[in-house]
Amino acid sequence: MKAIVWMHRDLRLADHPALCGALATVAEGVASRVEVVYAWSDCVYGDWMPGQAQQGWIYEHLQDVLLRLSEYGVRLRVTRQAPSVYVARARGVHGVHFNDPLLPAARQEADRLCREATHRGIAVTQYSGDLLHDPGCIRTQQGNPYSVFTPFSRRFREQVPDEQCEPLAVDWSGGYARGGAGAEAGGGTARARVCAETAHALAHRAQEDLDALGLHAQHIGARPLEASFEVGEAAAHRRLETFAEGPIMGYADRRNWPHHDGTSRLSPYLAIGVLSPRQVFTAVLRARNAAASDADARGVETYVQELIWREFAYHLLHHFPGTPSEPLRLEWSRFPWRDDPAAYVAWQQGRTGFPIVDAGMRQLSQTGWMHNRVRMITASFLTKDLMISWQQGAQWFWHSLIDADLASNTLGWQWAGGCGADAQPYIRIFNPETQLRKHDPDGRYVRTWIHELGDSAYPAPMVDHAVARGRALGAYTSFRKKLRA
Q1: Fold of 330-484
Q2: Which residues are CB-contacts of 402 (< 8 A; sequence separation ≥ 6)?
């Protein structure tokens, strides 16, 4: 009898509660082996299948997972079948284990999987592993979900004690496999390896399954993902340790400088679960204890708030699953966004004539990532200067980002568009030139991405910002009057 582990946005071996649970059934003699399944299916992702950029990133990490699983004698099964269908057709299944799905479609698929498994007499166990808290548990005193970040953050800090966030150690030594012992990266527990021939055969079969999906063909051009982000769970831990041992201390100030390596750059690993938030939070707590000054402590605390902001995004997605395509404030579905395909393409291509906007969009297209401050600037430009809907911006970011995260992408774009929780007021409109002077005063960032800056080949500004700002404010004022009428 086997224990099946369904992996989705949790492509790691360390701090993986579902994997721990499955291994425990083997150690107890209830199951004889573990099988890990990854389903590339719209039953899991719904309308939000990973975009072209992230597909390549997922492919690289599935390769890392399959190679490391094979060392333990575990084959990664990659399939286009929905997990519920896979389990229905599988033989000799004792139990199914998975971490709580975070995406709306995945939650629905989990319900189908539970019904199918129960019908067949198969035990199902769900685990909390990819958030610091259960998104359905933190509520207002009236029992409602929070829609403003600051009170949510206060409640979060009261309800989620630091000791609750300790990562789990994954123990491979319970008789699952036989062979020499080593140490699991990030886990610190003994592990047993199978012979090299068996591991190679398992990896080969898993690689064939993976290649059949065609994800490896989805890299955009010759984008060197590894030049920006190293692939693999070990690389993710190295990045986390490097950040927590130094740069986090200056995070409060340096996070807004796009030319400076002042952010954590952990988002691509968190987005697909190569790192768990518990692992990150634990490293951050160690940094807080090591803070040598008030400035250091302020940097750590600022980053803690960013982690809670991510939790807030999933809190909202859980309670309002329609928000990836519809505004949280439903009246904003009637806002008169402009349909301007030519302007939208110019924004996508980084040809707006505003250097800070264009640099960000070119960084995105060339690396699959963009500095967070510049994300806010480019989003403001699209929704305010061009008055193109936040949904179009969210779709392009989802397509282009290797760290695309449905909850964070939705919260960020609704913030920029003025129509969601904790939304940026529509009357607050970033001036791209002011933002450039403030956050890239010597132009190091924009010159990195715009090589023709200062030449005749670089386009003139596509709008007069003062005029565009007036147009946006006029539309907002008119819209508010109609709502009150």
Answers
A1: DNA Cyclobutane Dipyrimidine Photolyase, subunit A; domain 3 (1.10.579)
A2: 53, 54, 56, 57, 225, 229, 268, 271, 368, 369
**81, exposed or middle or buried, with CB in 10 Å at 0-12, 13-18, 19+?**
middle
Structure tokens at 11: 């492509």
pLDDT, tens digit (0-9, with 9 covering 90-100), for 405-414 = 999 999 999 9
**174 band by pLDDT with thresholds 50, 70 and 90:** low
One-letter-per-residue 3-state SS of the chain: CEEEEEECCCCCCCCCHHHHHHHHHHHCCCCCEEEEEEECCHHHHCCCCCCHHHHHHHHHHHHHHHHHHHCCCCCEEEECCCHHHHHHHCCCEEEEEEECCCCHHHHHHHHHHHHHHHHCCCEEEEECCCCCCCCCCCECCCCCECCCHHHHHHHHHHHCCHHHHCCCCCCCCCCCCCCCEEECCCCCCEEECCCHHHHHHHHHHHHHHHHHHCHHHHCCCCCCHHHHCCCCHHHHHHHHHHHHCCHHHHHHHHCCCCCCCCCCCCHHHHHCCCCCHHHHHHHHHHHHHHCCCHHHHHHHHHHHHHHHHHHHHHHHHHHCCCCCCCCCCHHHHHCCCCCCHHHHHHHHHCCCCCHHHHHHHHHHHHHCCCCHHHHHHHHHHHHHHCCCCHHHHHHHHHHHCCCCCHHHHHHHHHHHHCCCCCCCCCCCCCCHHHHHHHHCCCCHHHHHHCCCCCCCCCCCCCCCHHHHHHHHHHHHHHHHHHHHC
What average pLDDT score do residues 228-237 get? 93
Name the architecture of domain 2-129+170-215: 3-Layer(aba) Sandwich (3.40)
Buried b or exposed e, range 412-421, using 16+ CB within 10 angstroms: bbbbbbbbbb
Helix axes 372-380 and 432-439, enclosed angle (nearest 10): 170
Pick from 4, 13, 8: nearest CA to 108: 8
Model pLDDT, residue 39: 96
Q: Where are the domains of the chain?
A: 2-129+170-215, 330-484
Return the pLDDT at 484. Answer: 85
What's the whole-model pTM score?
A: 0.93
Cα separation of 243 and 261, whole Å?
Answer: 10
Instruction: Name the phi and psi angles at 127, rounded to 5.
Output: -130, 150
Count how many residues are written for the chain: 485
Give dist(CA 357, CA 394) in Å, integer.
16
Amino acid at 306: E
